[in-house]
Design goal:
alpha+beta, two-stranded antiparallel sheet, 187 residues, single chain, 7-stranded mixed barrel, 5 helices
């Protein structure tokens, strides 16, 4: 069981140089149309629950997630999102749920491709990139190592949003693992 107190396996932690070499070897992620690869709710005590199908809502985000139970819900941090290939690289064989994100996408999440205000159609929902930076923290370091935290936060790489981005729901809708994720034209 993975929950908010879970830590990573130190023998799976990669060095900064290994992470950067592996990132550079990745094929480019799709820029305009990708795939929703995982959906997760952080339940009571932070217990991770993977969902195959759910309805994202403007008021609650992912049903059952910690964000919806919080008294001080920041709409700028409603959905934590990571790029699937980067998450796998950092996890290095550990469960991706350790990161605590809500969605994983096969899509380029870089600042150049996903500036704040960018809208995405995911299944029946419409989501919007918020300006809030998604930074690593002490939990991220405990789960993936100090070099992983440095990797996602170092200024020369920061624009890639390797730790991910935040999205907010602007239109309720059903989403399913495997749904297309389409970048919408600016309005």
């Amino acid at each position: 069981m993975i929950d908010s107190r879970s830590v990573g396996a130190a023998d799976r932690f990669l060095t900064f140089d290994s992470l950067e070499a592996a990132r550079q070897a990745l094929p480019p992620a799709p820029r305009d149309t990708g795939t929703l690869t995982r959906v997760m709710a952080r339940g009571a005590s932070g217990v991770r629950q993977l969902l195959e199908d759910t309805v994202l809502t403007v008021d609650g985000g992912v049903p059952g997630d910690a964000w919806g139970r919080s008294r001080s819900r920041d709409p700028e941090a409603q959905l934590a999102v990571m790029q699937e290939d980067i998450a796998r690289l950092i996890a290095n064989g550990q469960p991706l749920e350790l990161s605590g994100d809500n969605l994983w996408l096969d899509l380029d999440l870089s600042a150049a491709n996903m500036p704040a205000g960018t809208r995405l159609a995911v299944g029946e929902a419409i989501l919007e990139v918020t300006p809030l930076p998604h930074d690593g923290c002490k939990k991220f370091r405990a789960r993936f190592g100090a070099d992983a935290l440095k990797f996602v936060a170092t200024p020369p790489l920061r624009h890639f949003n390797l730790r991910g981005i935040y999205l907010r729901v602007v239109q309720d809708g059903r989403v399913r693992v495997g749904d297309a994720v389409r970048k919408l034209p600016p309005s």
